[in-house]
Structures are given as structure tokens and as C-alpha cells.
Write a structure and sequence with these properties.
single chain, alpha+beta, Zincin-like, four-stranded mixed β-sheet, about 55% helix, elongated
Length: about 290
């Protein structure tokens, strides 16, 4: 699959670490943490204003001026607590719910025709890579689609890997290590948490439409490269990830175009239609950059 070039290779390379994989550039954690905090604060501010207005109206009907002040203050505090809790703890569950009956825990994957040996192999690789990296346990799910793809998402409460049936059934050990290394990179680089927060705010926008304007604030043009570089730093075998990205089996067209997680996939379902440096790095660019290592 060939994606149209969105960033010049020269421009992309200028942002990459010059020597080896020891640079902390590819994590870019601080910038993403600030982006998460700023978007949550905007959501808090909007919902707080809404709650305060409702509180004033209700309080005025109950007790005029004093009642309006008291009820508005209560609504303000309660809304902030609920919003922060929802945004911090709901993203992963909301994402998992999107797939409905197409998804189940990988440990139960035999129902989908996945052999016990392949299930055990995936869990063995996950355990080894997580121990090697030092990251905590992740719930692992499989969705009933034949293409090779995967994503990782997290919130403050839980984190999850979501693999397609095609990936579990068709990838050899080296490519599965590359795939899972990439998803660990998604979590380590805060891209998974960024996705979890966006998922929660996307749900909130159903009730508070102005929050939909935050959509563009979550675009991260170099996020795929961050996870790619983390993966080869973890597995120390770039060719496996290169083969995985450039393989003919990578046809994500049958996967549902679900917002906002479509860009979290190893093979993004769609190139972001944004301008300038916010455009997504293409598959061709990712492969060419990885070929240098």
C-alpha cells in the first residue's frame, strides 16, 4: 500500500536523532503531556462554564442571589471532578466498546479460529518485551478482521493492545515482535494516552458539541515515527518492521473508519487531511527512514 507523500524526507530527517537510538527525541513525551493537559483544561473550562450557567439558573429559581451563587459553585466543583475522572479513566473502555461483537480477549481467541499455539506465542512475546522494557501489563484483545494491523490505547486506569485476527494468524515471530514493539512505543511515547484522552473528549462532544473543535489539537504528524523508532530500539531488528509496513497483506480497507482511533493503527486507516507540518508521515517515508538503521 502506497500513501501519498505528506512531508519531505529531508524535513522529516532533520527532526530525527542524528546518532543511534539513544536520543530522547523520538519519545517527545513532554510535548504530548502538555498537549493532553491543555486539551483537558479547555474541556474543563467549557463544561465548567456550562455547569455554572445552569447552576445560576437553578439556584435563582430556588433562592435568588444566594441560591444562585451556592448552586453554581456546587455545580462547578462537581462538574470538574466528573470531567477529570471521565477523561482520565474512560478512553480505553470507550475505544474497546466501539468494536462490539467483533472483539474479544485474545485468550479466548480460539472461538475465532486462532490456534492455541499462536495465542500462547503472542502472550510469550508480550511478556518478554514488557519485562525487557519495564512497562506494566496490558490487556490484549483481538478483533475479527483479516488484515494485519494493531493499535495501543491507554488512560490513567487501563491500557490495551488491540490486534487483528490477521496479524495473530499470519505474522511470524520476528514480525510479531516488531508489531508489539511498535505498540509498546505508542504507549511509551504518550501517543496511546493522547488517543485515550481524545476518545473521551470525542464522546463528550456528543453532549457538548463545541468540544468537537478540539479534534485538530490531537494530530501528531510524527507519532508513527516515534513508535517505529522505539520498536527497533526495543527489538534491535529494523528489517522485521520494514517488512511489516511494506507487506502486501497490509490492507486496512475493511476496518471500520472509527473516530478518533483510526490514526492510532500501525497502518493508519486514512491520511490526516491537515496542512503543513501536521500532515501524517507516509508509510513510504517511515520505511525509508527505518532503512537507514
Amino acid at each position: 500500500m502506497v500513501y501519498p507523500l505528506s512531508l519531505s524526507n529531508e524535513r522529516t530527517r532533520e527532526s530525527l536523532p542524528r546518532r543511534g537510538l539513544d536520543s530522547a527525541w523520538f519519545l517527545d513525551v513532554k510535548k504530548r503531556e502538555k498537549r493532553i493537559k491543555s486539551n483537558v483544561l479547555i474541556a474543563q473550562g467549557f463544561v465548567s462554564i456550562w455547569a455554572a450557567v445552569v447552576g445560576v439558573i437553578v439556584g435563582w429559581l430556588v433562592g435568588r442571589i444566594i441560591g444562585a451563587i451556592v448552586v453554581a459553585a456546587v455545580f462547578l466543583v462537581v462538574s470538574n471532578i466528573l470531567i477529570v475522572r471521565f477523561v482520565n479513566n474512560s478512553g480505553t473502555k470507550l475505544a474497546l466498546n466501539l468494536f462490539g461483537s467483533k472483539m474479544m480477549l485474545l485468550k479466548d481467541g480460539e472461538v475465532l479460529g486462532i490456534s492455541k499455539e499462536k495465542i500462547e506465542r503472542v502472550f510469550n512475546i508480550i511478556e518478554r518485551l514488557c519485562i525487557q522494557d519495564g512497562i506494566g501489563d496490558c490487556e490484549t484483545y483481538v478483533i475479527d478482521f483479516p488484515s494485519v494491523n494493531a493499535l495501543a490505547i491507554e488512560d490513567k486506569k487501563t491500557r490495551a493492545f488491540i490486534l487483528t485476527k490477521g496479524a495473530v494468524n499470519s505474522l511470524d515471530r520476528m514480525k510479531m515482535e516488531a508489531l508489539l514493539g511498535h505498540e509498546i512505543g505508542v504507549l511509551r511515547s504518550q501517543v496511546g494516552l493522547l488517543g485515550g484522552v481524545e476518545m473521551a473528549l470525542f464522546k463528550l462532544s456528543s453532549f457538548f458539541p463545541p468540544l468537537a473543535k478540539l479534534k485538530g489539537a490531537f494530530n501528531d504528524s510524527l507519532a508513527p515515527i516515534s513508535a517505529d523508532l522505539y520498536a527497533i530500539g526495543l527489538t534491535r531488528y529494523p528489517p522485521a518492521l520494514i517488512d511489516l509496513l511494506s507487506g502486501e497483506v497490509n490492507n486496512p480497507s475493511e476496518l471500520p473508519q472509527i473516530e478518533p482511533i483510526r490514526k492510532l493503527w500501525l497502518i493508519p486507516l486514512e491520511v490526516e487531511e491537515t496542512k503543513g507540518p501536521q500532515q501524517m508521515v507516509s508509510i513510504d517515508e517511515r520505511v525509508e527512514i527505518l532503512s537507514d538503521f
